[in-house]
Structure formats: structure tokens, C-alpha cells
Design a protein that fits this description.
single chain; 272 residues; mainly alpha; Rna Polymerase Sigma Factor, Chain: A
């Protein structure tokens, strides 16, 4: 009795014919590979070229895939390396990302007020501006921070998966994601309205706020809720803007390829 065919929705297993495997990978992950590539390259045409390079490399290397990692992790490792090679050709990259004190509002006399409740035209405009600032800030991140941030916040990998894809220690991956997230948060914060009155003096030493910030970032990494009922007003504002930043990043994920790109990818693989 013949074995049942694997569903196209399932990642291909080792031994799957290369053309079938790559077609399935294009359908499963092509859109998110494009989301990664388009934020590395200078324009959509370069992004499409990079996506094509990724899948051609995957096609040529498929027979060596042994299943020691998932097909998804294997493919994104190829993509991350291709993106890093592409980005090294670009100039004007900032030399540094900024210290914690530069990225946090400890010295700001007024803190951001994030409107809640029913969505209003003001909230829609705030979110639109936050998205624009996030996209601009991602484009300006140094490469070593940009790729981990995109893999974690847009593609949706866990921190251990980011580390595996990039071949770096998990602690390094976590540190880079956290610092990049704070850089984006600072950009989003500048788009938010301010509370008209200065906040009360901090209830805790600054180090306690930094420890709480680290706990909040770890909660964001794991996708779990963080209790804000017992923290100071300034920390509450920072954490709310972190939540907004992550939500905006998730909204940058793509669920489809640009028109015609799938067909070009399949044709390129078939002709190899």
C-alpha cells in the first residue's frame, strides 16, 4: 500500500525531491523570507533578487539537508547569511546603537501617554506614525542588531531559534534583540502624546527600574503577560510603548509574496 503524500502545508522531510521540497518551502515561508529581505535591501527589486538567491541556494543544498534542525530553521539560516552578505555592501550604517540611558526616558520631564480603549482617529494616526517610525528605525539599525530583531519580532522566532539561525550564543541573541527593541521603542515614544503633568518621583532606585525592564523584555520574548500594577508611572509608560512597538513589528509580517514572485521562484528553481 503506497504511503500517503505529505500535505503541502507541512515542511518537507529529508529525502523529498528537491523541486518538490523547495516549492513547498516557497509556499510555507516565501512571504516571510521576503519580509526579511525587503528590510535588508535598498528597494523591492533587490529584495526580490535576494529572495531568489535564498531559494536557489536552498535548492542546490537540499540534498545535504539531514533534518538535524527543522527545514524552517535550515532555510532561515541560508536567508540570514544571504541577507548579511547583501547588507555588508551598503554604506552609511550607524556605528553604534546607543546606550541604555540614551534609549530610556529617565531624564524626560514628561512621559508618553498611550491612549487606550475604543479606537479613535487619534489612535489610528498614532499607530500609523508609529509604524512609519519603526520601519525607518529598522532600516537604520546596524546589521548585527537588525537581523536578530527582524527574526524575533517580525518573523516570529524565539530567542533560542534566532541564536541557532545566526550561529551566535543565546545570550548574545537576546541582548541584541533587547537593545534593538529599545531603539525602536524610543522612536515610537517620540510619536506619542505627552502627559501634561510631570510624573511623581520614582518609587524605586534606577537599578530596580532596569531590573524590571529586563523582566519585561524577557516576558515579551516569551509572549507572556507582565504585571504592571505595582510599577511606577514612568516604567508603566515605557512598558506600554514596548508593547506598542512589538505590536507594530508583528504588523509588518507578510502573508503573501509580491505578485508574480512565486512563479518566478518556481521557474528559477525548475530551470536550475
Amino acid at each position: 500500500m503506497p504511503e500517503p503524500q505529505a500535505s503541502p502545508a507541512q515542511p518537507p522531510a529529508p529525502g523529498t525531491p528537491a523541486s518538490e521540497a523547495i516549492t513547498r518551502l516557497v509556499d510555507l515561508y516565501g512571504a516571510m523570507i521576503y519580509a526579511l529581505a525587503s528590510r535588508i535591501c535598498a528597494g523591492p527589486d533587490e529584495g526580490e533578487d535576494l529572495v531568489q538567491e535564498v531559494f536557489l541556494r536552498a535548492f542546490k543544498g537540499w540534498d545535504s539537508f539531514e533534518g538535524r534542525s527543522s527545514a524552517k530553521t535550515w532555510l532561515y539560516t541560508i536567508a540570514a547569511h544571504a541577507c548579511q552578505r547583501m547588507h555588508r555592501t551598503r554604506s552609511g550604517e550607524p556605528a553604534r546603537i546607543g546606550s541604555l540611558h540614551e534609549l530610556l526616558p529617565f531624564g524626560d520631564p514628561l512621559i508618553a501617554a498611550i491612549p487606550g480603549g475604543v479606537e479613535t482617529p487619534e489612535q489610528i494616526e498614532i499607530r500609523r506614525e508609529a509604524r512609519r517610525r519603526v520601519e525607518d528605525e529598522i532600516a537604520s539599525l546596524p546589521d548585527e542588531y537588525r537581523v536578530p530583531l527582524i527574526l524575533k519580532e517580525i518573523v516570529g522566532f524565539s530567542v533560542p531559534e534566532v541564536a541557532q539561525v545566526l550561529g551566535i550564543p543565546e545570550g548574545t541573541a537576546r541582548s541584541r534583540v533587547h537593545r534593538a527593541r529599545l531603539r525602536l521603542r524610543a522612536a515610537v515614544d517620540r510619536a506619542l502624546p505627552r502627559n501634561p503633568e510631570a510624573p511623581p518621583p520614582p518609587a524605586y532606585p534606577e537599578q530596580t527600574c532596569l531590573d524590571l525592564l529586563d523582566a519585561k523584555q524577557n516576558a515579551l520574548d516569551r509572549g507572556v503577560a507582565f504585571d504592571t500594577r505595582v510599577i511606577c508611572q514612568r516604567c508603566r509608560s515605557v512598558f506600554a510603548s514596548l508593547d506598542l512597538t512589538q505590536d507594530v513589528c508583528r504588523g509588518l509580517a507578510s502573508d503573501e509574496l509580491p505578485e508574480g514572485l512565486r512563479e518566478r521562484l518556481i521557474a528559477a528553481v525548475s530551470g536550475s
